[in-house]
């Protein structure tokens, strides 16, 4: 994305969301803290799909490489989900240490990702149909994968009421 376009996009981001979109560390922990210790993952769908060209380039994977995708909702202390999450694990990463993510069920990825490690992270912020989204390309124990977190309108309303 060109610098001018990036700068313009940043000015459109609601002020209350900026710190969440650009925060480092575990979103799991940050949401748990915000919700007074309450946090829940609701897995929606797990499936295989081919990487799109942009994600393959970002992870430096072969074009059209197969990946395992996990989609879920993340809940804080309210009945409505706060975040729609999508994790994209290339098969090459699942053949290594990242294979544990395929079997975590309702546990959050962040509990494993940030446990005694500080993974390398590249981040981009985009606006998708469901809301403002941060995409993080992690390198963890030599494995690359993408974690996409879309902050839903209910979350934005909650943090605006808290401020």
Quick rundown:
Helices cover 32% and strands 35% of the residues. By secondary structure, the chain is of the alpha+beta class. Strands 1-2-3-6-5-4 form a 6-stranded antiparallel β-sheet, with helices on both faces.
Descriptive terms for the model:
alpha+beta; Chorismate lyase; 7 helices; six-stranded antiparallel beta sheet; 163 residues; 6 strands
Q: Examine the secondary-structure arrangement and name the CATH architecture.
A: 3-Layer(aba) Sandwich
* Cα end-to-end separation: 32 Å
Global morphology: globular
How would you characterize the largest beta sheet?
6 strands, antiparallel
CATH names the topology as Chorismate lyase
The low-pLDDT segments are 1-5
Secondary structure topology:
Elements: H1 3-12, H2 15-22, H3 27-34, E1 40-50, H4 53-59, E2 66-75, E3 83-90, H5 91-94, H6 109-113, E4 120-128, E5 131-140, E6 143-151, H7 153-162
Antiparallel strand pairs: 1-2, 2-3, 3-6, 4-5, 5-6
